[in-house]
Amino acid sequence: MAEPVLPSTARTLLARTARVQRDGRAPSLLAGVVRDGGLAWSTGRGEVAEPHDDVQYRLGSISKTVTALVVMRLRDEGRLGLDDPFEQHVPGTPLGDRTVGQLLSHLAGAGSESPGGWWERVPGGTLEDLRLTGDDVVLGAARRFHYSNLGYGLLGELVARHRQRPWEDVVRDEVLTPLGMTRTTPRPSGRAATGSAVHPWADVVLPEPEHDAGVMAAAGQLWATLADLARLGVFLLGDTGDVLSPATLEEMTVPAGVDPSAPGWSAYGLGLQVLRVDGHTLVGHGGSMPGFLAGVFVDRVEQAGAVTLANTTSGLDPLVPGLLADLRAAEPRVVEAWTPSAPPLPLDLLGVWFWGPAPHVLRAQAGGLLHLGPLPGRGGRASRFAPRPDGTWVGLDGYYAGETLRIAPDHLDLATFVFTRTPYDSEAPVPGGVDDGGWQAPA
């Protein structure tokens, strides 16, 4: 049970939520903040009966995250690879040469929507009913990010074929039930909100349709309560249970094709949106279907998240970033105290190393990691490294992500770069050698 927010914080969060609901004219809006393993605060505004956290709303594209979790489970079991051609798992589509990983990260060039009637407002059928053609491939592979609902419909088919069961049964048994999300279902069940469109020029509403999306269900079919959505937020903060390993979750949060050191950006990992807002990185997913808007995003550094559900088609200002900003300002996180720990290398191997004439520092970090980067105030490439069983180190992020670092007493060997204890040490294996004349003043 999460510790509730302070009364003053609760009022600030309530005031923001109430203004968004009123100004956005949502028939109902639910909001909550997540920390310490659960909902620390929540509210319902508009036509909401208590308990507001047990009313189902449609999640829309948050369903994609749930689908991606099962795909990653299949990968971790060795049943598929992210670089596998899709044809290897689901033959006969025009996207067969695109990879599973490209589909997960919206880099496969698949069309944004499935062919035929708009799948979000008309009942769906099987993959064969879509009758996909080359026209459903709109971009080259890995050329650019292009959000694709069709791509996730295909990933749902991949899940169903590997497990030999319907997608909805697989996600229920492998993700929802293990996480305790028992009020998350493919169609509304029990207390559920009615999806509505609000007239742009008058305060009247129009009910939106609800249906089974068929093969496209994996892209946006699920319904959930605020309490269940909060549990997904807790998962994204690292409480992965038996669903995925923390390392696989971390892998899913890495943006595809975007430099995360940039001052502001939005990107997509593997089934997760990654946003940079006011200097903070938020991980999660938004969702929209006719009649509904939803969101779950967490700040993994601050160990807090926010969730929202509304039964309106459009018109709401973003609420999650504001709730998280309010929480940070009102109740800043108190970090763990620093304590000494044994370094993963002898101390004489840490400290200053030179790439050519440029000084860098190799330092130990918590958790048995190393960090190699330029001196403060100097530009250059920086990465963290984790140990491998064979004594080498692998880059975790930055320019050297995935690259191998080898450490010798007199030099570091990293992706063909050699770092030495002094600039261009003639005794070290510097590529291309060192001029016999050594360092000289200009004539």
TrEMBL record:
<dbReference type="InterPro" id="IPR050491">
    <property type="entry name" value="AmpC-like"/>
</dbReference>
<dbReference type="InterPro" id="IPR001466">
    <property type="entry name" value="Beta-lactam-related"/>
</dbReference>
<dbReference type="InterPro" id="IPR056008">
    <property type="entry name" value="DUF7586"/>
</dbReference>
<feature type="domain" description="Beta-lactamase-related">
    <location>
        <begin position="21"/>
        <end position="317"/>
    </location>
</feature>
<dbReference type="Pfam" id="PF24491">
    <property type="entry name" value="DUF7586"/>
</dbReference>
<dbReference type="InterPro" id="IPR012338">
    <property type="entry name" value="Beta-lactam/transpept-like"/>
</dbReference>
<protein>
    <submittedName>
        <fullName>Beta-lactamase family protein</fullName>
    </submittedName>
</protein>
<feature type="domain" description="DUF7586">
    <location>
        <begin position="344"/>
        <end position="421"/>
    </location>
</feature>
<dbReference type="Pfam" id="PF00144">
    <property type="entry name" value="Beta-lactamase"/>
</dbReference>
